[in-house]
Amino acid sequence: MSRGLFILFEGCDRSGKTTQSTRLVQALKDMGIKAKLVKFPDRTTAIGKMIDGYLTQKSQLSDQAIHLLFSANRWEAMNQMRADLESGITLVVDRYAFSGVAFSAAKRLDFKWCKSPDVGLIAPDRVFFMDIHPDDAAKRDGYGEEIYEKREFQLDVRAKFFSMMDKSWAIIDAMKDVDLIHRQILLLTKKALQAQEAEPVPIAKLWT
Ligand code: 2DT
């Protein structure tokens, strides 16, 4: 049995990552493919609760401390994610280390320092970058409720994402119709699954 794939959704706030990742998992399950949705930050763990307090502005933390908590929140999920991938489950992940680096680097923390705690995490096989201009994102419902939802900051975050892209990334125009985006992503995911079937690639590590 071949391993599952690690499919990642990244992007700025209100770009539709959660909608599209949820729909992708459902579509894969409907096709008989084992799939699971994973969301970072995972606000349910002890570390996740500290992150939630920070994001909803109930508590304050230094930029460095919150950065390390976001990374720890990924590390605490690694054993389960590896076990899932090895048992053939495809993981559809909503945000990951690229968000970690993009947001902290946009706060002017050193780019290399930002990457270092996430070195060695499981690397995604395919990344979908939900691209939206912050001015368009700001028009969507619920925008502006959390600490990072400010225009200039989001512009900077977006630029940081672009600086980390490689050939495993696909840029998705998040302003397009939701169903159209879903079909585009499903097609790309099917292609990735077929490629893995034809020529299996082992689980890789991030930034090594
Ligand atoms: P959601 O709105 O998607 O729950 O994200 N963030 C996220 C970071 O600053 N560092 C990270 O490592 C991750 C995963 C992005 C909540 C906010 O947290 C930011 C938006």
Automatic annotation (TrEMBL):
State any GO CC term.
Answer: cytosol
Associated pathway: Pyrimidine metabolism; dTTP biosynthesis
> Which E.C. number(s) belong to this protein?
2.7.4.9
Stored Pfam families: Thymidylate_kin
Q: Which domain of life is it from?
A: Eukaryota
- Boundaries of each Thymidylate kinase-like domain copy? 9-185
- Alphabetized GO MF terms: ATP binding; dTMP kinase activity; nucleoside diphosphate kinase activity
Q: Which InterPro entries match?
A: P-loop_NTPase, Thymidylate_kin-like_dom, Thymidylate_kin_CS, Thymidylate_kinase
The Gene Ontology biological process terms listed for this entry are: dTDP biosynthetic process; dTTP biosynthetic process; dUDP biosynthetic process
Q: Which family does it belong to?
A: Belongs to the thymidylate kinase family.
HAMAP family assigned to the protein according to its UniProt record, in alphabetical order: Thymidylate_kinase
Please state what the protein is called.
Thymidylate kinase
